[in-house]
Amino acid sequence: MKPFDYVEIRVPAKPQYVSVARLTISGLANRVGFTYDEIEDLKIATSEAITNAVQHAYTEDEDGEVVIGCALYEGKMEIMVADHGKSFNFEETKAQVGPYSEMEEVSFLREGGLGLYLIETLMDEVKVHQQEGVTVFMTKHVGVEQVDGNVKHISS
Amino acid sequence: MNISVELHQKDLLVVNGIIKGEIDAFTAPILREKLSEIDLKENLQVNIDLTDVSYMDSTGLGVFVGFYKSINASNGHMELIGLSSRLKRLFDITGLGEIMDIQASSGEVKIDETV
């Protein structure tokens, strides 16, 4: 048995569907057990990736699709957003996605400003893969920040 | 999913705005359009209430950055008020919180229930 449940969402590459995908992510993240703040982070990060796909991947007259693949683990969620409208073999694509490097031509993500920055800040791990379009791969763990931030030492 | 933007000309040099709903790739252009209708007189003060904004991402930040630049160019001032702790955080992690005049909602100091 696979160690995760997989859910794939396909939406037209149009801005009005970003919120639809965001709602779905919110529901899935709730299943995994993320806190309210973590779910809000996931919603923003995913919206940023989809918005990039919608705004940059397609010319106005093209009917593209954005595919959002979500792998739900025990205490972890992986999300892939691809702008080329093809379904993933999730494991295969994940293996191909290299670490994000400043050397890569990712100006498409940086233009318009803060999208990629927010993704990197809000998620635990981010990779960008560019081949037949762009794939953003991101991971978030349940309760990572909370553990570090709220450990209290009992002295006595 | 919707956005509502109300603008009230309080007096000659004060405009109060109220935004409600979600600001994302779909609604940000609507907000930008609305804000562009404001006549940017010298020394204009624009207060925008975000109390009922339930979601915002970089598309919304982009709109406010654009408006901030325009109003500053005419010696005006933009103030964003009623930010939830989520919205405040968004401005803070992007560094915009230090540049812009933003006021968190009074409920901001409440105990974080998620911990």
Structure commentary:
- The complex is a heterodimer of chains A (156) and B (115).
- Chain A has 156 residues and is an alpha+beta fold.
- Chain A is 40% helix and 24% strand.
- Chain A has one domain: Heat Shock Protein 90.
- A 5-stranded antiparallel β-sheet of chain A has the order 1-2-3-5-4, with helices on both faces.
- In chain A, strand 2 and strand 3 form a beta hairpin.
- The longest helix of chain A has 21 residues.
- Chain B is α/β, with parallel strands linked by helices and 115 residues long.
- Chain B has one domain: STAS domain (Transcription Regulator spoIIAA, 2-Layer Sandwich), CATH 3.30.750.24.
- Chain B starts with a strand and ends in an 11-residue tail after the last strand.
- Classes of the chains: A alpha+beta (156), B alpha/beta (115).
- The interface between A and B is medium-sized, with 27 and 21 residues.
- Chain B: Belongs to the anti-sigma-factor antagonist family.
What is the class of chain B in the CATH system?
Alpha Beta
* Low-confidence parts of chain B: 108-115
The greatest interface between two protein chains, and residues involved on each side, is: A-B, 27 and 21 residues
Radius of gyration of chain A: 16 Å
Portion in helices of chain B? 25-40%
Number of helices of chain B: 4
Within the largest sheet of chain B, what's the order of strands?
Answer: 1-2-3-4-5
Number of domains of chain A: 1
The poorly predicted ranges of chain A are 100-112, 146-150
Give the helix tally of chain A: 6
Proportion of residues in β-strands of chain A: 15-25%
Overall pLDDT of chain A: 81
The assembly state of the depicted protein chains is heterodimer
Amount of helix of chain A:
25-40%
Task: Tell me the CATH superfamily of chain A.
Answer: Histidine kinase-like ATPase, C-terminal domain
